[in-house]
Design a protein that fits this description.
Layout lengths: L40 E4 L5 E2 L1 H11 L3 E11 L34 E11 L4 E4 L7 H12 L3 H10 L42 E4 L5 E3 L12 H9 L3 E4 L11 E3 L4 E3 L4 H6 L15 H12 L1 H5 L7 E2 L15 H10 L3 H9 L1 H5 L10 H13 L18 H8 L13 H14 L13 E9 L5 E8 L2 E3 L9 H16 L13 E3 H9 L2 E8 L4 E11 L5 E6 L2 E3 L5 E3 L3 E3 L3 E3 L29 H9 L4 H10 L5 H10 L27 H8 L5 H10 L4 H10 L4 H6 L16 E11 L7 E8 L2 E6 L2 E4 L10 E6 L1
Parallel strand pairs: 14-18, 15-21
Antiparallel strand pairs: 1-2, 1-3, 3-4, 4-5, 6-7, 6-8, 8-9, 9-10, 11-26, 12-13, 12-17, 16-17, 18-27, 19-20, 22-23, 23-24, 23-27, 24-25, 25-26
Length: 801
């Protein structure tokens, strides 16, 4: 045992964490080692950063901070009580995995008791002092005790993420509940025997809390549910709140929907509102399914959940390098699936796995909040195999990306929350972060980047214009009209409707989904699009034009998004339950753009007579209040000729999934080819110049990002070492936009699937081609895939052959 005097020279460096100080005592900031690891965790008594055994010496050599609290956690299994089969079954109340009320991913994992053992360790010799020890210096004792008492930073992040969000159970109080108008129309509601006032339905009934009307609810995407009479009533009357009959409990709770707010809400005065119609809540019992329960039942009925998880197969667990699972931290399956796919590409492995020693060697002051460090940590954790070993139940211990999840979600209203999110939107968000933090480094996302070419032909003159932009994904429409089994689908719908009329349900295995050929999706993408009000610089007036979209370059890896998520006529989100025949290998040469042809006449770059678009400010304000982006609203008003709210909102719903939906709007015909002479806003130029960049650099960045200052800064930072060389180069037309190009033949190497009826609920899993075998990654469960359900995916990653 070392002498206490050994600590004396280091006492001036010892600090005591303040009450709100972040103390990283749960996990190493450079690896996924933690107190349960074989070598435990070392927490610096100076910086309060935690380190695994592999990194603590490097930290000491870099900083000279020698004193650490060593935490070693011992866990002891608690014997499981004998199961008799008579105990209550856990009720699933949420369509999610790894969160309270949802599916428990580690249901088979035994429970443990935990005991933490502490020592003070001094480097470089790893001299050890036991804790507690009254002979230790006072500052050491205070520092160590404060570290032990400190709140877990992961728990603090979880609490922050839950603040102000609906976690699936807690709902916002409706703004209409306090002063809800209730008509004195002498309507009294009987305690039972309800049916829709407009049809004969006796289930899925909603009581309007203003006039007492009882009407059926919305029709679900699979045809079940109601006939939309309750929502039609709202459109006719504007009466905002309705409660689902059968969900009301004696304590005055129930499923309340606000049509005006388009969400499930809380009505704290529900008992009083029901009393107006003669309903005594204390005499009511819940007899109908809540909306959460219906959502669960709907997904289980479609059979999609079991198919995508390959529940019918006896999956063989896999372990080892690049076969590491990611633990679900509460609706983080969308993050887990995306990063598993990203680290299949050599560019990402070179940058963040092979490049990890260089990234770590910088030892930033706060590595837990350094994007490159945390991405490298995640990559090494996934690829190394160090954390990929089996546990009880076939799952893995895997890695828990707490720090990464907190970092990539910071400042983002959706990704910082605990709610389920769209994997595609997270993919784009992650690429933005990678580009932003790739200054002076190769951006690994360049292997996904390609140039899109749009050709617009003026209907009056026949002249054409070519424009280009860079993208990282190819969105393909899913044309239901192209289903090859349309008659079988109609027969199935009739059988299901007949069964439900008799109070029965068809077996999920009997479901018949529309089968869409992949070629039909390509044809839908490639078809000509008619542009109204295109300003032709050839004739100096608005004309009708035709636009076709092709790819000017083909990337090393092509990410395809199937546009399965859509908006129904009643403006509610829906997911197309279809099977698309995605190919294992594909030749996409039909998508190759050829650029200007010798027999084509190009439209003039600009016209002094191009009119400035005018927007109806009142309608624009209404559209913004509905939550649409301002640039999308301008598009809608332009293309509908300022003809009112309804045409504009309909246009927005039809174009919600357009590539450029929220991009800066330039009226068609006003942009010169290639964007070389696009005018840029002087205030935006001045803003960027004030940060130390030249005017040519600022203008180039703004033109490349359609005038968006935030995106322009990301663009300019990621290319700062190249800008001067680019400025000196002679100007030339570049159809590639600096994107890589190569043959158009690809093979499928990964796909992400979604289970659920919307992006806000459900679960994501991914399948990856690993060493010639398909592997399913279902959070921390990694197994050999027997039946990869490639026809039911959402995002597909193809690699060039």
């Amino acid at each position: 045992m070392a002498s206490v005097e050994l600590l004396t020279p280091h006492l001036p460096k010892i600090k005591i964490p303040a009450p709100q100080q972040i103390v990283y005592k749960d996990e190493c900031v450079y690896s996924f080692d933690n107190p349960e690891s074989e070598t435990g965790l070392y927490v610096s008594l100076t910086s309060f950063l935690g380190f695994g055994r592999n990194y603590v010496e490097q930290y000491f050599q870099k900083t000279g901070n020698p004193v650490f609290l060593h935490i070693q956690r011992e866990k002891t299994p608690i014997p499981e009580p004998e199961v008799t089969g008579d105990g209550p079954e856990k009720k699933i109340t949420r369509l999610a995995i790894g969160v309270e009320g949802g599916f428990e991913p580690d249901i088979c994992k035994p429970k443990y008791t935990y005991t933490d053992h502490y020592n003070i360790v001094v480097l470089p010799g790893f001299y050890t002092f036991p804790w507690p020890d009254p002979s230790l210096p006072e500052v050491i004792k205070k520092s160590v005790q404060a570290i032990i008492n400190a709140e877990s930073p992961f728990k603090m992040a979880e609490m922050a993420a839950l603040q102000g969000t609906w976690d699936g159970e807690r709902r916002e109080v409706s703004v209409h509940a306090v002063n809800l108008q209730q008509l004195d129309n002498n309507v009294k509601i009987p305690p039972s025997g309800w049916k829709c006032a407009k049809c004969e339905l006796t289930t899925n009934l909603w009581l309007n809390l203003t006039d007492g009307s009882i009407l059926c609810g919305r029709r679900f995407f699979d045809g079940s549910g109601g006939n939309d009479h309750a929502v039609e009533h709202y459109r006719d009357t504007g009466f905002p709140l309705a409660v689902k009959l059968g969900t009301i409990t004696p304590d005055g709770k129930g499923d309340v929907f606000s049509y005006a707010e388009d969400d499930m809400v809380e009505d704290p005065f529900l008992a009083d509102h029901l009393k107006h119609f003669g309903i005594n809540v204390q005499q009511l019992q819940k007899t109908d399914k809540s909306m959460v329960e219906l959502e669960l039942e709907l997904n289980q009925r479609t059979g999609e959940w079991n198919t995508l998880q390959e529940s019918g197969s006896e999956l063989r667990p896999l372990h080892g390098p690049a076969l590491t699972g990611l633990n679900n931290l509460g609706n983080t399956c969308y993050i887990n699936s995306v990063v598993q796919v990203m680290f299949r590409m050599p560019d990402f492995i070179r940058r963040f796995v092979e490049g990890a020693p260089e990234i770590f060697s910088t030892f930033p002051e706060d590595p837990a909040n350094d994007f490159n460090v945390q991405t490298a940590k995640l990559g090494v954790g996934l690829v190394s195999g160090r954390y990929s070993f089996p546990e009880v139940g076939g799952a893995q211990r895997g890695v828990s990306p707490h720090m990464y999840r907190q970092l990539v979600g910071r400042g983002h209203p959706e990704f910082m929350s605990k709610r389920q999110q769209d994997a595609h939107e997270f993919y784009l968000h992650l690429l933005t972060l990678i580009e932003r933090h790739s200054r002076h480094r190769v951006n690994p996302a360049e292997c996904l980047r390609f140039s899109v070419e749009e050709r617009v032909a003026c209907g009056a003159s026949g002249s054409v214009r070519y424009t280009r932009r860079a993208e990282h994904h190819l969105p393909l429409p899913v044309p239901l009209s192209a289903a090859t089994n349309a008659q079988q689908v109609r027969d199935y719908e009739q059988r299901r409707a007949a069964a439900e009329a008799n109070g029965q349900r068809l077996d999920p295995s009997q479901i018949v989904r529309p089968h869409i050929p992949f070629g039909a999706c390509l044809d839908s993408f490639m078809r000509e699009e008619t542009l109204e009000q295109f300003f032709s610089t050839a004739v100096n007036e608005k004309v009708t034009a035709q636009k076709i979209t092709r790819l000017a370059t083909f990337p090393d890896y092509l990410l395809i998004q199937l546009k399965k998520f859509t908006i129904k006529e009643d403006w509610t989100p829906a997911k197309l339950d279809v099977a698309v025949d995605m190919p294992w290998e594909v030749d996409l040469s039909c998508l190759r753009g050829r650029g200007p042809q010798p027999d084509e006449t190009l439209l003039p770059d600009s016209s002094p007579q191009a009119p400035t678009p005018q927007y109806d400010e009142a309608v624009l304000a209404q559209l913004l209040d509905m939550g649409f982006p301002v640039e999308a609203c301008k598009r809608a008003l332009y293309y509908t000729g300022n003809s009112g709210l309804e045409p504009a909102s309909n246009w927005l719903m039809e174009h919600l999934t357009d590539w450029d939906f929220a991009n800066k709007f330039e009226p068609p015909g006003s942009q010169p080819a290639g964007g070389a002479s696009v005018a840029v806003d002087e205030s935006s130029v001045a803003n960027i110049i004030s940060m130390g960049f030249t005017r040519p650099q600022a203008e180039k960045a703004l033109r490349a990002t359609e005038g968006d200052v935030g995106r322009a800064l990301d663009w300019i930072f990621s290319r700062a070492d190249q800008l001067d060389a680019e400025d000196e180069a002679p100007p030339r037309e570049d159809r590639t936009l600096g994107c890589r190009d190569g043959p158009e033949k690809y093979k499928l190497v990964a796909f992400i699937s979604h289970m659920g009826t919307s992006t806000m609920v459900g679960h994501y899993v991914c399948h990856v081609l690993h060493e010639g075998r398909w592997v399913i990654f279902n959070d921390n469960k990694v197994a050999l895939s027997e039946n990869p359900p490639k026809d039911l995916g959402y995002l597909y990653l193809y690699e060039r052959l």
